[in-house]
Design a protein that fits this description.
Elements: H1 5-10, H2 13-25, H3 52-72, H4 76-81, H5 89-110, H6 115-139, H7 150-173
Helix pairs in contact: 3-5, 3-7, 5-6, 6-7
Length: about 180
């Protein structure tokens, strides 16, 4: 089966489950026509019931974590350093380490059984921020350069972090 843009836009999680199947099973489809759904690797149905109170609580908690770690506790060394062409590793690691620490503290306080979610958040956060750093450093997309895409890049970065929080909230709120 060929991947088409219309298939991806209709089922955006198809790509993730397709690649997960390749990774876990060694192949996405067999000659017998075994599909991803047959392998049990599909994204849960959008009609699944999730308690709204729990979802809202987790979203508020992870948004609070994000505001504290991304704005209050992020130093200029971290903010500027993680987007550099060279010398980016330590500032990025320190910044994402703050996210890990704040997330771990809050999650252990509320629901210790979800401690590993802080590690998942760390891995996703470091990936998003490094991608943003690569675009910023290689494309000159900085505020100093008055690049027209600077604020768009910041917006996309923040949107991806909030979507991460939403996805993790859905996971923790699901029965």
């Amino acid at each position: 089966m060929f991947v088409t843009a219309s298939r991806i836009f209709r089922r955006p999680w198809w790509c993730i489950t397709e690649f997960a199947a390749i990774w876990y099973k060694g192949q996405a489809r067999t000659g017998a026509g075994k599909s991803i759904e047959d392998a049990g690797l599909s994204f849960p149905p959008l009609s699944a019931s999730i308690p709204l109170g729990l979802l809202t609580g987790w979203m508020l908690l992870l948004t609070f974590k994000h505001v504290i770690a991304d704005f209050v506790l992020q130093t200029s060394w971290m903010a500027i350093g993680k987007d550099q062409r060279v010398g980016w590793f330590l500032p990025l690691l320190a910044h994402c380490g703050v996210h890990l620490g704040v997330a771990m503290m809050l999650i252990l306080t509320v629901a210790p059984r979800f401690w590993f979610v802080a590690l998942i958040d760390f891995a996703i956060h470091i990936t998003i921020d490094r991608c943003k750093g690569l675009i910023a450093s290689r494309g000159g997309v900085t505020q100093e350069n008055k690049h027209p895409w600077f604020w768009t890049l910041i917006g996309i970065d923040q949107a991806l972090h909030h979507l991460t929080g939403f996805g993790l909230s859905v996971f923790m709120a699901a029965p």
